[in-house]
Design brief:
The chain is of the alpha/beta class. The protein has two domains: 61 residues, no CATH class; 178 residues, P-loop containing nucleotide triphosphate hydrolases (Rossmann fold, 3-Layer(aba) Sandwich). 57% of the residues lie in helices and 11% in strands. It has twelve helices and five strands. The protein has a five-stranded parallel beta sheet with strand order 2-3-4-1-5. α9 links the parallel β3 and β4. The longest helix is centred in the first third of the chain and has 28 residues. It binds adenosine-5'-diphosphate (ADP) and magnesium ion (MG).
């Protein structure tokens, strides 16, 4: 390799090139600032290198978490910061807070969010998924109906094995809205297969408005329902939300506010 000439620009041109080759974008962007700060504070080269490496690692992890969040395909980003527990006192807050720490993922435990529509089940499921992504886990969010449709299509196209492999790579499967649409016999069997594969290998979060005794109506087969519930609920945390719909409450509040703020229209002549 050539020895670089001692011009002031040449070493940084080369350095920028090496940092690009080594895929160290943060070091490349920051080394001048960090060098200036270290010089000012009288810090040595080891400290300089340590600071740069720390920034590179931090930003790399952030980028990876963002990629995991995009890959999870959440319908919206929701976190617990925006969840008003006071509006939904039926929800076991200490349990939700504990689950946010993610130990259930290491134990391959499941979470069932059960309750009326509009009580924040999907919100909490997304918040848990978001926290899992930030903690380095691979997550996939889907409505149960979308998943079953995808499984049926994959089966028809002889791509089921491929889809199974893709799902197997996730640490956490979030299946939203079980109970709104009944499945065909094949659809129910394919869903059962997913939950069987996940059993003790992945965590599943499932949201539903349907009490257990009605699950057969959706799955169409009592024996299959029993076997599915057996796997899903073997190691499960149940979060129940039985209050009023938050959507309805906020809509009512908005309506009231609007009626208060809209001046009375004069009666038409
Ligand atoms: P569910 O899945 O139980 O039908 P969602 O989680 O979709 O309900 O909630 C409906 C909407 O209301 C969402 O926009 C959600 O963010 C919001 N929401 C529900 N409950 C709360 C709450 N307690 N605090 C803040 N927002 C809430
Ligand atoms: Mg929902």
């Amino acid at each position: 390799m050539d020895t670089p000439a001692k011009t002031p620009e040449r070493p940084t041109v080369l350095l920028d090139h090496y940092l690009k080759l080594l895929k160290l974008p943060t070091v490349k962007r920051e080394y001048r600032n960090v060098a200036a700060a270290c010089a000012k504070e009288g810090k040595d080269a080891v400290e300089f290198l340590a600071r740069l490496c720390e920034r590179e690692c931090f930003e790399r992890e952030q980028r990876a978490a963002e990629r995991r969040i995009r890959a999870a395909a959440f319908p919206a980003i929701k976190t617990l910061d925006t969840f008003d527990f006071a509006a939904q006192p039926s929800i076991n807050r200490p349990l939700v807070t504990q689950l946010m720490r993610g130990e259930y993922l290491d134990e391959r435990e499941n979470i069932l969010l059960m309750g009326n529509p509009g009580t924040g089940k999907t919100h909490i499921a997304i918040a848990l998924g978001h926290a899992a992504c930030a903690a380095g886990k691979h997550v996939r969010f889907q409505t149960v109906t979308a998943l079953v449709t995808q499984l049926l299509e994959a089966r028809d196209n002889k791509q089921l094995g491929r889809l199974h492999k893709r799902l197997d790579r996730c640490h956490l499967l979030i299946l939203d809205e079980f109970g709104y649409v009944p499945f065909t016999k094949t659809g129910a069997e394919l869903l059962f297969e997913i939950l069987s594969r996940a059993y003790e290998r992945q965590s599943v979060i499932l949201t539903t408005n349907l009490p257990f005794e009605n699950w057969t109506e959706i799955l169409g087969n009592e024996r299959l329902t029993g076997a599915l519930l057996d796997r899903l609920t073997h190691r499960v945390h149940i979060i129940e939300a039985n209050g009023d719909s938050y959507r309805l409450k906020t809509a009512k509040r908005r309506n009231k506010k609007e009626t208060r703020e809209t001046p009375e229209k004069p009666a038409s002549p």
